[in-house]
Amino acid sequence: MPFIVYSELNTTSSMIGRAILGAEDFEEVGKISGFRHFRWGKVELLAVDRNILETDFLDQIIKTDLIIFPCSHKSAKEVASFTAHAEGNWTGEAKLGGQPRQLSFSSPQMMHKVLSILSKNNSTSLPVIYEATHHGPLLKTPSMFVEVGGSREALESVEYCTFVAKSIIDALSSGPETGTTPVLGIGGMHYADKFTRMALEKGYAFSHIMPKYYVNETDMISQAVERSSERPEKAVIEWKSIKSDERQRVIANLEDLGIGYERA
Q1: In terms of C-beta density within 10 A (0-12 exposed, 13-18 middle, 19 or more buried), how is residue 31 classed?
Q2: Does the pLDDT of residue 52 top 90, yes or no?
Q3: What is the percent of the chain where pLDDT is above 70?
Q4: What pLDDT does 170 receive?
């Protein structure tokens, strides 16, 4: 049964979590490790009083095949948006939770489903976009973040938080997607515009996205391939965003893993 986990310490996360509770007939069924536990049909919800980026302990206290984290989105340029992404740190730094040079297990099909539902039903002016893999927690359970924010208005918007809540519920209560292809994204910027378009137009379900800043971390590609609930069938490389020598190293690494590639 999938788990939704929201943080009571994060205003936006809490707003989305409570909107989910209010939208369906969730029943409070007790506590797990001191955290309030709710259930609606086959969907579980946990309200944690912790920093959601530092919940690596969830693998030890809940057993599930999927965790969805509704949360706030921060943007240095205060560009408001709805986002979806996997977690992990590509380098030796782990400033926002997780562990250095460790990726969490992703859920490409569910990320694609949530992204598609957000995009299809979006009546706001905010864009819907994949973000590159970043921050914690570090989990073996397939997981994903669904976020809204970027500006103060978006972070505090009841309308936007309710829309995210409804999109998560719709994704979990609908049947499995068909016609999607699990892929790995390499190159491009943190906000993966091109990969988002390919997801929505071609059915590409991205597992992890390694932005151009980290393409020299080629030894991390094997983690990106293996730490996914569906093994990527190929990599999609945003060709012009990375240098020729960098591309060659990436392609050589993919070949060693038996993974083909497509230019984007």
Answers
A1: exposed
A2: yes
A3: 100
A4: 97
| Domain residue extents for the chain | 3-173, 181-263
Q: What is the homologous superfamily of the domain 3-173 according to CATH?
A: AF0625-like (3.40.630.50)
User: How many Å apart are CA 55 and CA 109, to the nearest integer?
Assistant: 23
Strand 81-85 relative to strand 27-32, pairing = unpaired
The rounded Cα 223 to chain-centroid distance in angstroms is: 16
Residue tagged 């932005």 (tokens): 211
Q: Which of 55, 53, 15 is nearest to 32 (CA)?
A: 55
CB of 195 within 8 A of CB of 115? no
Residue 199 has pLDDT above 90, yes or no: yes
Distance set, CA 102 to CA 5, 97, 111, 116 (Å): 21, 11, 20, 28
List, as one string, the DSSP characters of 68-118. Answer: EEEEEE--TT---EEEEE--EESSS--TTSS-TTEEPPB-HHHHHHHHHHH
Given the structure tokens 């993966």, which residue do they identify? 192
Cα three-residue angle 92-57-144, rounded to 5 degrees: 70
pTM of the model: 0.97
